[in-house]
Amino acid sequence: QVDILYLQIIKCFGLFVFLFLSGQTLFKVVVKSLSPKELVRIHVPKPLDRNDGTFLVRYRMYETVNEGLKIEILYGNEHVAQSPYILKGPVYHEYCECPEQDPQAWQRTLSCPTQEPQIEEDFASFPSINLQQMLKEVPKRFGDERGAVVHYTILNNRIYRRSLGKYTDFKMFSDEILLSLARKVLLPDLEFYINLGDWPLEHRKASDIPGPIPIISWCGSLDSRDVILPTYDITHSTLEAMRGVTNDLLSIQGNTGPSWINKTEKAFFRGRDSREERLQLVQLSKENPQLLDAGITGYFFFQEKEKELGKAKLMGFFDFFKYKYQVNVDGTVAAYRYPYLMLGDSLVLKQDSPYYEHFYVALRPWKHYVPIKRNLSDLLEKIKWAKENDEEAKKIAKEGQLTARDLLQPHRLYCYYYSVLQKYAERQSSKPEIRDGMELVPQPDDNTSICRCHRKRLSREEL
């Protein structure tokens, strides 16, 4: 008998999670329109088995479903675990521009957290945002030829931007998430600057005169005041997860390698030479091959070291999880592979770092990961500890994985983005405007999908 402990459905993102107590996988999932009169194209890929009794199922719609969806979980031809489940309509596909006019209703639907500690901390330095000061300062301080800053205005749920500097190609990631948000919910009117570079920019302290300005970045540091959003990598992965590619935050969860007991009992690392400690890792690996397998896959910063240390072959990321322990060492800033490592079922050995991503604030050493010193002087000692304390190491790995699953769900990232924009808008001391040189960022023209929006578009005066 197959039973299901829980079923979680996320209406906006085509994702649900369920737990089979029996652990059997001889089942199928059917997602279809609730009304037999409504013929709608819906793609349901193979479920992702997370190898702990839980499965992720994604579906992609190509049309609006008016009545709603029926989700059937079948064992053989029999419904199991209170199947079918009903998702009342209308339900819209990813590219349907039909924003919820009540942001609070949208946040309730997604069960957005009422508070995000990192957001509260980031905005503590900015009780008020002087837009005129930013317009004057940002282009001079950060907008030179080598700049990587984009100036955005959101007005009437439309996105406008202009680039400052020539290293702004990554605006495609910020464009895409802002457009995706605008299709789902009415965004506040605001004007802001996003830093598309690796390093956080604002290093003034609150006591300085002039004080800091709220540049938005993908990575924070202990000595900067930037407001942090999920990294471009997490953002892109979340958007791609809805399109069903392989290396995304959901697919990782269904490809975590052998069970814990069958993993190779070594620490593992592969990556570029973007920090000297990574070279130290390879040297440690050469001296202690029974404990550590580390290799540099590409040389850019320390090309003279390639002959001495050698170049490792590229490996598929899923193959990392053949190893029990994963070493996470900074790149130029925080290593953006960290969320992926956390979602596997290996133990993460995390280097102490002044850099952080938006979700680090929720993680605790020895509960979610094992800390290692910045100079890696205790790495071998920590690997030995893990080998000698296998049950404790397994427990930390699982706790880290479960926490990352919760923090990095697609709807949580959308909630986080919206909360940052909302907090920012509340603090603006003047009205945002479409500035000279700004261009409209158009919504994508998806001719393959049919969008029928049932919501009345209200003017801001009506709201």
TrEMBL record:
<keyword id="KW-1133">Transmembrane helix</keyword>
<comment type="function">
    <text>Protein glucosyltransferase that catalyzes the transfer of glucose from UDP-glucose to a serine residue within the consensus sequence peptide C-X-N-T-X-G-S-F-X-C. Can also catalyze the transfer of xylose from UDP-xylose but less efficiently. Specifically targets extracellular EGF repeats of proteins such as NOTCH1, NOTCH3, FBN1, FBN2 and LTBP1. May regulate the transport of NOTCH1 and NOTCH3 to the plasma membrane and thereby the Notch signaling pathway.</text>
</comment>
<comment type="pathway">
    <text>Protein modification; protein glycosylation.</text>
</comment>
<dbReference type="GO" id="GO:0035251">
    <property type="term" value="F:UDP-glucosyltransferase activity"/>
</dbReference>
<protein>
    <submittedName>
        <fullName>Protein O-glucosyltransferase 3</fullName>
    </submittedName>
</protein>
<keyword id="KW-0472">Membrane</keyword>
<dbReference type="InterPro" id="IPR014756">
    <property type="entry name" value="Ig_E-set"/>
</dbReference>
<dbReference type="InterPro" id="IPR013783">
    <property type="entry name" value="Ig-like_fold"/>
</dbReference>
<keyword id="KW-0812">Transmembrane</keyword>
<feature type="transmembrane region" description="Helical">
    <location>
        <begin position="6"/>
        <end position="27"/>
    </location>
</feature>
<feature type="domain" description="Glycosyl transferase CAP10">
    <location>
        <begin position="186"/>
        <end position="431"/>
    </location>
</feature>
<dbReference type="GO" id="GO:0035252">
    <property type="term" value="F:UDP-xylosyltransferase activity"/>
</dbReference>
<dbReference type="InterPro" id="IPR006598">
    <property type="entry name" value="CAP10"/>
</dbReference>
<comment type="similarity">
    <text>Belongs to the KDELC family.</text>
</comment>
<dbReference type="GO" id="GO:0012505">
    <property type="term" value="C:endomembrane system"/>
</dbReference>
<dbReference type="Pfam" id="PF05686">
    <property type="entry name" value="Glyco_transf_90"/>
</dbReference>
<dbReference type="InterPro" id="IPR051091">
    <property type="entry name" value="O-Glucosyltr/Glycosyltrsf_90"/>
</dbReference>
